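Quick one - inputs below.
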Amino acid sequence: MKTVETIGVIGGGQLGRMFALDAKRMGYYVVTLDPQEHSPCGQVADEQIVAAYEDLSAIEELGRRSDVITYEFENIHIGSVRHLENLGYHVTPSSSVLRVTQNRILEKQFARNAGLATTEFAHVRNADDLVRAGEEIGFPAILKTVRGGYDGKGQWRVDSIDEAAAAYDNANGAELIFESEVSLACELSVIATRNAHGDIVAYPVAENTHDRGILAMTVAPARVDDAIATRARDAAAIVGRDLGIVGTYCVEFFLSTGGDVLVNEIAPRPHNSGHYTIDVTPCSQYEQHVRAICELPLSPPRLLSNAIMMNVLGAGTGDHLAGIAQLLADPSIVLHVYGKRHAVARRKMGHFTMLVDGTVDDAAIARAEAAHAKLRWTP
Amino acid sequence: MKTVETIGVIGGGQLGRMFALDAKRMGYYVVTLDPQEHSPCGQVADEQIVAAYEDLSAIEELGRRSDVITYEFENIHIGSVRHLENLGYHVTPSSSVLRVTQNRILEKQFARNAGLATTEFAHVRNADDLVRAGEEIGFPAILKTVRGGYDGKGQWRVDSIDEAAAAYDNANGAELIFESEVSLACELSVIATRNAHGDIVAYPVAENTHDRGILAMTVAPARVDDAIATRARDAAAIVGRDLGIVGTYCVEFFLSTGGDVLVNEIAPRPHNSGHYTIDVTPCSQYEQHVRAICELPLSPPRLLSNAIMMNVLGAGTGDHLAGIAQLLADPSIVLHVYGKRHAVARRKMGHFTMLVDGTVDDAAIARAEAAHAKLRWTP
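Output:
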């Protein structure tokens, strides 16, 4: 591969922004493509192409300008990635990775084929499938759209076949996946990076708390037994290897009360639960992604401090973030704000990392929550 | 003061770039003004005004667009800063700080008036002054232009009155300062930040090695006695207080073989010897500057690791930096490249920080030097 000077990024959200901040620090020229002008990533990139993800001529322009192209979230138009590949441009992770991770059924089947545990699941394409799934898997269950859902959108928890039927109607004919609900001990994730030579590095296992489908808090490292952590990291390595991912990716797991480590979701990109790596490791998940796609050596992750990450969501009460001075009075806190204009309710607007000395305990989490409570959105 | 949303930065070099990377991470809108299109700072800022520093209408435009204005190096046109102040715009540090730090004579007189030690010095405005300085202060000595010199430009080491006269001719009538040469134990610097309430925080004292007038390496913390470190930090606090700086600044010191801590230079801005703070402290010198000028609480500095910083200078042998993969094979190294197009000989093109476990010793410095030797500039 020729030396990379320009990196193209499909998608201009906060993940692209944090990627671009690291890529710029390392001296790369960054071009992003996003339909929204002056997007979070576009603000810090050298250039933004303002176009829809499925605008093939704009996508081609991104290809022409870039030595390597990546994407910052997986719900982009796969046809655009295939188009670039067909033209001989280097896109990574490849469209074959995207194909699997865009589809919850293919994702689960992939995990099973790789020998990894998942929840019980069934594919629901029609009302008969739904009835059969209800009988075979039982309730409580989770129905999710097979494609396009994120941050709790397109998900319904159902307790009976009647509730399932109502959810099915709600989905307007979209294909669904029917999953048994797991008796949860906690949710875990592993951020890992794989390069073209097949080397893989993984950050410590993180522990995640969601609120209505959206990540609220990550604790790193997770407060689980070493044996559990090792199983999660091993599973993440298998995912990267068998999917052939080149870049940073995330595998989310359910840890059941019975001690099972179940693959839940695979994201072929840096992930919200890895934001803490920016502030407490010498090489963040974003820099690892730069390294992987630019054929530079990966950096074995090293924690300089334990950490709690908390998301800052919009409240719909205004676009101005108040309370920052109160938050930053605590010198253990590092703030990240994404430059989005409108703080729509439950939109991810920023996050903060709290550095924690020693083990993350309930007192530390209470401190993080108290810090979080200082922030509010005002007109 | 109203809440800051937009920060204006006069100057688009690497210091502005690293400042903008932190300001963007924190969610600010950043506008820079620099004569060179797509400057290092302009690449990561939201906008760049392309204009000369003394273009008052462009400077006014920067003022109109910004809630607060700062500058990234001190050799800008002081008239532009005064113009903004006269129009009621908030510029920080103020023009009165700039006036002193742009003039080596005023700077030394200020330090003396503040009760701080400096080298012996004399003001040379004509040939008679030069002869008198030679007689009173003696040789070896250093002649420097009173204004505009940096990175060893406009400096001459002289051993006799004849050499001094030759240097004086070389300076083409510029006012000079004649300083006694110090018998050096080492060079130190303190990066500190002062806010509008007069609070001051200071990073650990750093130890600097120069090569032909340009910083080559910083070791943090400096390998000096606590008593010396305390004197340097105390002196830095006095400088900030008595000059009334609001923002991050640097005081460079000579530590003489006799144990004297002499103020050498004052920079009213983040400084090359504080780059390491980006990688090994939760709040870098740039974020502290954001905090000071936006009236957010300062963050008491905390080292997560000891560090060695080495500058990467252009060689004049090409504009492509080779050897990055070899450099980054060491996971203790964090690379910063400034996005300058031309690697002119001895131009500051980037730097790296090496995280060091335990005390920085000769072996660690040898490792950093070996890492540095892996980099080269090719066409």
